[in-house]
Amino acid sequence: xxxxxxxxxxxxxxxxxxxxxxxxxxxxxxxxxxxxxxxxxxxxxxxxxxxxxxxxxxxxxxxxxxxxxxxxxxxxxxxxxxxxxxxxxxxxxxxxxxxxxxxxxxxxxxxxxxxxxxxxxxxxxxxxxxxxxxxxxxxxxxxxxxxxxxxxxxxxxxxxxxxxxxxxxxxxxxxxxxxxxxxxxxxxxxxxxxxxxxxxxxxxxxxxxxxxxxxxxxxxxxxxxxxxxxxxxxxxxxxxxxxxxxxxxxxxxxxxxxxxxxxxxxxxxxxxxxxxxxxxxxxxxxxxxxxxxxxxxxxxxxxxxxxxxxxxxxxxxxxxxxxxxxxxxxxxxxxxxxxxxxxxxxxxxxxxxxxxxxxxxxxxxxxxxxxxxxxxxxxxxxxxxxxxxxxxxxxxxxxxxxxxxxxxxxxxxxxxxxxxxxxxxxxxxxxxxxxxx
Length: 437
Fold this sequence. Notes:
This protein is an alpha/beta fold. It has two domains: 3-235 and 420-433, Glycogen Phosphorylase B (Rossmann fold), CATH 3.40.50.2000; 253-417, Glycogen Phosphorylase B (Rossmann fold, 3-Layer(aba) Sandwich), CATH 3.40.50. The chain contains 15 helices and 13 strands. The protein has a seven-stranded parallel sheet with strand order 3-2-1-4-5-6-7, with helices on both faces. A six-stranded parallel sheet has the order 10-9-8-11-12-13, with helices on both faces. The longest helix is centred in the middle third of the chain and has 17 residues, at 186-202. The chain starts with a strand and ends with a helix.
């Protein structure tokens, strides 16, 4: 008989963007491993993007309970004269101009609404979760963050009911990529760290996406960690993405980036490498396509390197269209920003890139988990953030193969078997199987 798991996730369709993919695929495939998910999410969330098409992945018999939430973004929108959608900020703020109102709101975010701006959903999530736990037999609780305030709801429900609880960290908490940009006071940092430590110690199991972040979280638990920390990587869904009939663009060799390109992710070494290749006349038919949010600082860098005329900017598109852009690329661009825990960054995007069978050129920590994944799967190469010559050589070789009518390929399906979303959900189910009251 299938067991039930109560899944608490702020991001869930119609939320779009990368934050929703991991939990959505867990919900989709858990029934294949005899776990029935019961989802609690927010009714009208402060989402950075919306993609109603993702709702097709929710099994028809999966109950999804939506609650109200107190959301400071609505107040922030009124304060700054923006729409609710414009007020939602996710990820790095590096390089963005701020008004005095925005600076005040940022200070409040860092020091008052701890641990994050979605903490106003926690009381509603606890209330709905407690009602469901009282009404039906539930064998486990799963919370996923960011927002990491969701884990506070999991901790409260575990304490109230004794139901085993697993906390899933898609990103670190006090080591997330933009944490150093927030104007925390010393007291706020201590409170945030204490909340993080409490979650890590109280949870019956913890999961994260990479070996480096597994070690990072384990170190925060002290010399005798009692909570097991599992690596359950992100992945790709074979029903969404894979080598397809879509052919590589034969009119131009396109370097394509899909997703948000913040100022902190601006791959200036790659722009410089392309500039050098163009000036040498080595890549006459090269184009750049950026799909998704592009920071104005990135646009400025492209202009400064003489690349604006060969760059196409495509605003946020539904997931199926994003996949088509990946499949048509001559080379897929991965950029990992610099932050203290960057060696563990393994985004969901890298797996979808790999699944298309197109080669990847990465810019980031050359000794990190992403670089090792590309090497292990033969899916591409990742270069250090200052390695202009290495990037230029790799782009040139890829371009020449394309120009000769034989565009290079990336990872093979066999190499990617362990990274299918269904396989990763199977790993999650094994952890849930081991939880005991």
